[in-house]
Structure formats: C-alpha cells, structure tokens
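In the previous chapter we treated chains in isolation. Here, by contrast, the input contains two separate entities that must be folded as one system, with a combined length of 418 residues.
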Amino acid sequence: MPLSMSDPLRVVEAGYHWASDEREWLSGIAEAARPFAIGEGVAAYTVELAERAQIRAYSGTSEVEARARAFTSAFDLATARQVYAPTEFVGNATYRVRRLAKLQKKSVRDLTRGKHISAFALVSGDPRTQALALVFPSEREAADPDRAFPHARVLGLAAAHLSAALRLRALAAGSPDDADSVLAPNGRVLHAVGAARNGRESLVEAVVRRERARGRLRRSDPDEAARMWSVLVAGRWSIVDFVDRDGKRLLLARRNPVHGPDVLALSDEERDVVWLATLGHSRKYIAYELGLAAATVTKRLGSAQRKLRVKSRRELLRKLGHV
Amino acid sequence: MGKRPPPGLVVEHVGEEFVVFSWELAAPPSTLTAAERDVLVRVARGDSNAAIARARKTSVRTTANQVASLLRKTGAASRFDLIRQFGGGDAALDE
C-alpha cells in the first residue's frame, strides 16, 4: 500500500499521545510505524543512558528484544551514547556500528562483542540521558542507508517530534504520591488528587500539572502573550496537544526546529496539496484530484512554503520529497 | 484560530522548547434557545452548516438563520470567532 503524508504524522501523534505506562506508549508508536515495516515487523524501545546503557522499556517480539538487550549492554556508556545518538533519518545499525568501530580503531566484533543487530533504526532522544529507538529488523545491508530503507526521509520527519515527546514524558512523569491537585488562579480545582492516574489525562495536562507543582512555568506578560499567539497562528509553533476541561482550553505547542521541515505546522489542507506535489503531480492535476481551483492549490502551496520557510517549490520538494 | 488572541490568554513557558497557551472558554449567553445551543456546540467544533442541517434534520437555511442569530446574540465577529470563544471540545478530535 502506498504511504501517505499522514503516515509519518501518525507516528508523531502516537509519540505525543499520553500513556502513563511507557510500554503502552511504545507499542502505540510501533503500531503507528507499521506501514514503514520492511517485512520483519517493528520494535520500539527506550534506552537509559545515564549511568550505564540499558533498555528501559520495550515493545515488540521477544526474539528481537533479546538481541536488542544484548546489543545495548555490549557497549560502555560513552560508546552507547554514540550508538544511540539521535538522527533525523533512518539509519542502518550495521553502517553506524562500522563507522564507530573505525573511529575507535577496533574491529566491529570487538566493539559489539559479537552481539550485532541487523536492523534499520530511527533514533530519537537526548544523547546524554535517554534514547528512543524505532527498529526495523532486516538482513538487508547497504552502504547508503537512505537508499536501502524505503521512505527513510518521510519517517525521518517524525524524529525531532519523537525526541520532543520523550522530553515531554520526562517532564510529565512523576512519582505516584505527588499527584497533587492543581488550582486555577480563581481557586477552581483543575485536577483532583488521583485524577492523573486514571489514564484519561492528556499530555498537556500532565505537563502543566507537574511543572506548576515544581514552579517552573514562566508566564508571559500580556504583550508577549499576544505576540506568541500571532507566532503560533503563523505556524512557527506546532500544536502538540490540546484539551478542553472545566471551561478552559489548554494548548501545548512546540517551537518548530530551526532546520528541517515541520509537517505539523501545516494545516490538513496544505498537507494534502504538499503531499500530492511531492509525488510529482502538476498543479492542475492536484486541483482536479482534490476538487479545488488551480489558484487555490497555488495559494496553499505558497502558505506551506512560508510555514516551512522554503523559498521555492523546488526547495519544498527537496525538503519533503522522499526517495 | 483567528489572528486576534482569545480574551484572557495566558502563555506559560515550559523550558526553551515548549509553551502552554490557556484561556477560559466563554459561557454561552442565557438568551440562546435550546436549538441555538445545540447548533453552537456543532459550529464550535467546526461542523459546516450543511453537516449541522443533516445531523439536526433541518434545512440548511434554518441552520444558517440559527448561526446568524448566534453571531448576533454572542457578539462574535464570525464563525471562526465562535470557535475561538466557545472552544472545539474533545468531540472534534474523536471524530
């Protein structure tokens, strides 16, 4: 089945979906990434990179799990941080390990202690503390990872968001005994004790609850708030999550990465047009396909270019185009 | 989302990367009829007049009139202003 623009977005959405259980969260991401699988399924796991490298939570088959655990704990911490350094594309594990071995002037066998894993992986996270690996086991080998894994760049669009989602989870996670209620400025209880544990909480609520409790939210003055709003509307921030509760709307947004396209900044309409354009269709064909006037297609492509900060249609296609 | 920020907008920064926008959604005025309230919920989650008319089994003209009186009674400048003021609700995401 051909991929569509919504496939990498589903992976992003699964990343921002709030599940207090990490395994459940990972299985959502793996499920969303299934359209990208190359025959042997998908596994998703988080790696702890603080004191020593080890897999913290895992979702996938037990066979791949055993291999991934042995592979991960074969490295010393410094090397593991390089193995699990985040990238914006889907890389070949063999390729990466071979490069690291060359840098350290060791053989691949010495570096991995024979615990090699043959897979393509999208690695997100923070190299100093934790990583999220989305793994596609495969025996396929190639020097150029972009060529060997179909749609590597499309899936790569999700990378920065998965890193952000991992950081948000760290912000939102708390020990069970500090699930305090949060009081709105007018004294209304936004969160009763224990409400956070029932699983219906959204990511934005979890983040706000924790950060308010820690006193780490910095509030903008009204002028700055208005400016932030216009920046949000202009698409320079991505809306990560929003929720309406108790007559109040909470909306969590993320600053778009300076480099790299941010597909979440696009509206659904712009996304449809951009997607058809990346498939190489003409303006007239896109208009026909979507039931729009050709001028509307031009307009939407234009606003997508502005939001993704590219100057020409050609640059847009190069940024989003897939191999 | 309109270009003007919603009244009472609060912007809070979570580190360098994230921002939380929050604002009180307005309560609809008490002068609304039951039908208008129902239409308001649907408009506020982004339904078109045609979709609302289908769901409520009325004519599109009736719905358009109800939206017009909603705009008059709430003082909203536009349909999008209604969405901004009265919220989209989770229902908009579930569908």
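The CA atoms of residues 221 and 227 of chain A lie 10 Å apart. The mean pLDDT of chain A is 81. Compare these points with the single-chain example from earlier in the chapter.
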